[in-house]
Design goal:
about 375 residues, 15 helices, about 5% strand, elongated, transmembrane helix
Amino acid sequence: MSQNNTNQDPLDPFDLPENEGIDMLDLLTILASRWRLLLAAPVAVGAVAFGASYLIAPTFTAKTTFLPPQQQQSSAASALASLGALSGLAGGMAGIKSPADQYVSLMQSVNVEDRIIDRFKLMEAYEAKYRFQARKELEQNVRISLGKKDGLISVEVDAKNPQVAADMANQHVAELRRLTSELALTEAQQRRAFFEAELKRTQLKLVEAQQILQSSGFNPGALKAEPKAAAEGYATLKAQATSAEVKLQTMRRGLADTAPEIQQQESLLGALKSQLAKLEGSNRDPKNDSDYISRYREYKYQETLFELFSKQFEMARLDESREGALIQVVDVATPAEYKSKPKRALMAISFTFAAFFVLVIGLLSRHFWREAKTRREDTEKLGV
C-alpha cells in the first residue's frame, strides 16, 4: 500500500482536480507585477517606429475621374428588343461586359503601359532592368476602378513627386483617347470602318473603270438613249444587289441566321439577283452588247455603288457621333498638397500594440516555464 503511494506524484499535473487550472486573475496578477515594462517597452517601440517613418520617402497620390463614352443601343439590339418575348433568346448577350469595363481594360493594356513607361522614363525611376519589371511596378502604383453606382472611371497614381503623379494620371486619359480613336470599339465605329474600307475600294474601281471607258474613245453623244437607259438600269440593279449583300453581312454580325430581319434581307437579295440574271440573259446579243456599252455599264455600276457606300458611310459617321465617343473628364488630376504615405501615426500605433502583445506572450511564457522547472517530474523531463 505504501509502495503505491510512493509511485504517485502529488505534483503530477494530470492528477490535479478538474477545477484547478489557470485562472484569468492569475494571469492578470502575473502581468500586473511587470506593468512598468508593459507600458514603457511598447511606447518606446512606437516612438522608434514613428521616428523611423521619417526615413521613408513620402508618396503622393493624384486622382482623375472621367465619364466613359456612352454607347447607345445598336440596331441589332433594337431589333431584338422589338421581338418582345422572343428577345429572351439572346440571353447570351447579357454576359457581355459593359463598355466601361472595356475602357478600364484598355488603360491596363500593355499598349498604354509601355507608352507611360517611355514617356515618364519609369525604367530609370523604378530601377528596373527589364520592361516587365517596370510594368509590374507601375501596376502597383496605379489603381483604375469603375464606380458601380455613378459609372465614373477613376485613376489614382502614386509617385514620389506630386506633379509626376498628376501628369501620369492625366496621361492615362490621353492614352485612352488615342487608343479609342485607333480602334473600332462600338457597333457604329465598326460599321463606319467597314463602309470606309468598302468606299475606298469602290473608289479605286471607279477610277479604273473611268480610265478604261476613256481609253475606248467613248463619247457621251455617241450613245443612244435606249442603250444608255438599259446600261443605267442594269448598273442600278447590280449596285442595289451588292448593297443588299453588304447589308446582309453587317446584319449577320449582330443577329442570328434565323432572325426575321435576316430572312427578309435574304429574300430581297434573292429577288434582286433573279432580276439581275434575267437582265443579263436578255443582253447576250453581240449587236447590243458592244464594247463601249459594257464598259459604260461597268462604269455606271461602280459610280452607283460608290454613291450607295457614301450614304452608308455618312450614316455610320452620324451614328458614331451620336454615341458620344468623347471622353468627358469630371476631375482633372492636380498635384497633391499632402502626402498619402507613409501614415506615421498609424505606424506608431501598430508597432506599439504589436510590441505590447509580443511582450505579454513573452512574460507569460517565461513565467510558466519557471513554474514548470519547479516541479520535480517536469524538471526530470527537461533534463535540468
